[in-house]
């Protein structure tokens, strides 16, 4: 199982279990909470009615007095109320009054008059000066339909202390069931939204963490495979610190290996020129004819130039390879770049008796580093000049291919031998110039290939059907 899925499941499990138990507590507490609120309301109403009923009870007119008449009128009323989306069309109170012995002398429904209620909890406790209440089934044996009874003592209106009876106010519990059910449904619905929102937050957090870890994983794999890749995007957290640490470690390890590799390569390439310089210097210490002395001195100068060119090219190549990615990107017009390059190369072209034919569109934009692109194109043009015979023509063309721009430079030389086509982009591999037989540092084309890679493109070299070698630089359009 992937880490992102583990994180999401763990987060969702914790939040889900917590939300489930919280919702369960809320749902289970709704019913007793409503019942307690209902009981508190009945206590208030019962005590108010007990005070009102006291005169009729003392006078012996509970059944036919003013209190009974008012209760009958109230029970016939239609409240026409809408309580929290639920209509209320009747008075649900039932009032019973017992005398000091617990015998029912008044019942608003006219059913239990004369019954001994002294054993019922509400009447029993109230007659003994305590708070009396009970909840019993409306029909014996049916526990699904219960009625709450709350009693209040009826005192003699003359002294307010003598207990003369008990008034019990009753209301069916099922009148509150719709409100309880609605509250429970609301809690469950909001709880479901809460769990869903928590899951979404968990998913986003998991995606954010997994994305950072995934970028580090891909970066580490690319580094292990030796691919030059930019470091992960900077983040201001522990994952960002880990990415920075990995990039620092990569730079140190690659820098050490890079230095070792290039020291070996440079040492190998410097052996031949140094040996030639040493041999010529030893010969110059001996008496020689002037012509021979001049020849050996010229050889020393030539080998020194070769060493200087190798070191300069090696430093340029090392710079672009060490970066691994472009440090800056701007809009670069390849057309303007090619024209500027052609103007700068005009003296060399004239000295070599060569002509440059340019085929350029009005504009060709790419995203990249203008300095590196100019150096790469300059290397290609230098090669074309070096391999073209006097009186030849060099063709410079720029054309669009889909979403890419292609720069083509074709010389008028003999072309590249088949055995060398696969090796021309290797470091220090070079071919002898047709006119002089000299070799270059062998670092120009590797530099061009590295610049192309940094820009997301590629470089190539082939033999053109019309003759000569054709170098190509393919770059994504900006």
Automatic annotation (TrEMBL):
Record's keyword annotation contains Cell membrane: yes
Membrane topology note: Multi-pass membrane protein
Query: What are the UniProt keywords, alphabetically?
Result: Cell membrane, Kinase, Membrane, Phosphoprotein, Transferase, Transmembrane, Transmembrane helix, Two-component regulatory system
Which intervals hold domain Histidine kinase? 265-478
As its record notes, the protein acts as a catalyst of:
ATP + protein L-histidine = ADP + protein N-phospho-L-histidine
Entry superkingdom: Bacteria
Query: Taking every annotated instance into account, which residue ranges of this chain make up the domain HAMP?
Result: 207-258
Q: Which Pfam families match?
A: HAMP (PF00672), HATPase_c (PF02518), HisKA (PF00512)
User: What PROSITE patterns does this protein map onto?
Assistant: HAMP (PS50885), HIS_KIN (PS50109)
Give the GO molecular function terms: protein histidine kinase activity
Residue ranges of the TM segments: 7-27, 191-210
Where does this polypeptide localize? Cell membrane
**Enzyme Commission code:** 2.7.13.3
UniProt-recorded name of the protein: histidine kinase
- Native species of this protein? Stenotrophomonas capsici
Per the record, the gene is creC
């Amino acid at each position: 199982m992937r880490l992102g899925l583990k994180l999401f499941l763990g987060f969702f499990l914790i939040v889900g279990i917590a939300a489930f138990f919280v919702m369960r507590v809320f749902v289970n507490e709704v019913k007793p909470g409503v019942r307690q609120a209902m009981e508190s309301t009945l206590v208030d109403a019962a005590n108010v009615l007990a005070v009102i009923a006291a005169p009729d009870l003392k006078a012996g007119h509970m059944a036919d007095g003013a209190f009974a008449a008012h209760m009958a009128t109230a029970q016939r009323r239609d409240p026409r109320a809408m309580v929290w989306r639920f209509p209320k069309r009747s008075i649900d109170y039932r009032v019973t009054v017992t005398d000091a012995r617990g015998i029912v002398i008044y019942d608003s429904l006219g059913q239990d008059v004369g019954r001994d209620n002294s054993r019922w909890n509400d009447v029993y406790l109230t007659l003994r000066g305590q708070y009396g209440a009970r909840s019993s089934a409306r029909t014996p044996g049916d526990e699904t339909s219960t009625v709450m009874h709350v009693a209040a003592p009826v005192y003699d209106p003359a002294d307010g202390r003598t207990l003369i009876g008990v008034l019990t106010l009753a209301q069916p519990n099922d009148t509150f069931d719709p409100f309880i059910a609605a509250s429970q449904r609301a809690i469950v619905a909001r709880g479901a939204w809460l769990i869903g929102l928590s899951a979404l937050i968990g998913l986003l957090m998991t995606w954010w963490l997994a994305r950072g870890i995934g970028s580090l994983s891909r970066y580490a794999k690319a580094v292990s495979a030796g691919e030059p890749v930019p470091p992960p995007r900077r983040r201001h957290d522990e994952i960002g610190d880990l990415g920075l640490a990995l990039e620092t470690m990569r730079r140190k390890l690659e820098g050490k290996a890079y230095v070792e590799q290039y020291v070996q390569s440079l040492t190998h390439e410097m052996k031949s020129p140094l040996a030639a310089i040493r041999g010529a210097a030893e010969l110059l210490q001996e008496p020689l004819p002037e012509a021979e002395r001049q020849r050996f001195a010229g050889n020393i100068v030539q080998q020194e130039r070769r060493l200087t060119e190798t070191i300069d090219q090696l430093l340029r190549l090392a710079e672009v390879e060490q970066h691994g990615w472009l440090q800056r990107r701007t809009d670069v017009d390849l057309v303007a770049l090619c024209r500027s390059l052609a103007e700068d190369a005009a003296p060399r072209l004239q000295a070599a008796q060569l002509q440059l034919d340019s085929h350029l569109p009005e504009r060709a934009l790419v995203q990249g580093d203008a300095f590196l692109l100019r150096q790469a194109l300059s290397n290609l043009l230098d090669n074309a000049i070096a391999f073209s015979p006097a009186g030849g023509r060099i063709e410079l063309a720029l054309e669009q291919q889909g979403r890419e721009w292609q720069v083509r430079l074709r010389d008028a030389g003999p072309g590249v031998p088949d055995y060398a086509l696969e090796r021309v982009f290797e470091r220090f591999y070079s071919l002898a110039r047709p006119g002089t037989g000299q070799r270059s540092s062998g670092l120009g084309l590797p530099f061009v290939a590295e610049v192309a890679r940094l820009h997301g493109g590629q470089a190539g070299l082939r033999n053109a059907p019309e003759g000569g070698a054709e170098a190509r630089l393919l770059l994504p359009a900006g």
